[in-house]
Specification:
The chain is α+β, with helices and mostly antiparallel strands. It folds into two domains: 37 residues, no CATH class; 129 residues, Winged helix-like DNA-binding domain superfamily/Winged helix DNA-binding domain (Arc Repressor Mutant, subunit A), CATH 1.10.10.10. Helices cover 54% and strands 13% of the residues. The protein has eight helices and four strands, in the order E-E-H-H-H-H-H-H-H-E-E-H. It has a two-stranded antiparallel sheet with strand order 1-2. Helix 5 crosses helix 7 and helix 5 crosses helix 8. The longest helix has 20 residues. The radius of gyration is 24 Å and the shape is elongated. It starts with a strand and ends with a helix.
Length: 175
């Protein structure tokens, strides 16, 4: 008599069946039910839970502080022209990231999108991905991660980042 073995991992969505041909066939007939149950029991990872909590907290903070004064014009050139001429690489990356974010349906951005926009507009920054990482560091917190699909991270400008952009705009007005 064959030994029967069933292995189901709800977290990864993997299922392994072992046994007689009759047993395996019977399970395959129920596959649609099993798959739907697996979808109901998939767990959210701790990292995803933290990302979700940070995103919710930042969205609430942005609702309270508002984004008034940061209306995005139709073109990137008009947007960049609103800021003073002597900008650091971090400021250029943040300005570009906010513009790209506001053009995106999901109200977030990928590092590659910001990099492409910088290149398209002939703005030179040494290692934009590293600059964006610094903007999300614990000391600045101008950018935060909203979600991750595989290795691809989606980011958003935080309320502190919005405040920094407002300060840059006000700095230009006083000059």
């Amino acid at each position: 008599m064959n030994n029967t073995k069933v292995k189901i991992n709800f977290k990864t969505g993997e299922m392994e069946l072992e046994g007689t041909e009759i047993f395996v066939q019977a399970q395959l007939e129920k596959l649609d039910v099993i798959v739907s149950l697996m979808g109901q029991f998939s767990e959210i990872t701790e990292e995803e839970a933290v990302e979700e909590a940070v995103t919710e907290a930042e969205e609430e903070k942005l609702l309270k502080t508002g984004e008034q004064g940061l209306e995005i014009p139709g073109t990137f050139g008009e947007w960049l022209h609103k800021f003073k001429g002597d900008l650091s690489d971090s400021d250029k990356a943040l300005i570009t990231a906010y513009y790209v974010q506001k053009q995106n349906e999901g109200n977030d951005f990928k590092t590659s999108d910001v990099n492409k926009s910088l290149i398209d507009h002939s703005i030179k920054i040494s290692n934009p991905s590293q600059v964006l990482r610094r903007l999300s560091s614990s000391s600045k917190k101008y950018v935060f991660q909203t979600r991750k699909i595989g290795k691809l991270k989606y980011l958003r400008v935080s309320s502190d980042g919005v405040d920094h952009l407002k300060a840059l705009l006000n700095q230009k007005k006083t000059e």
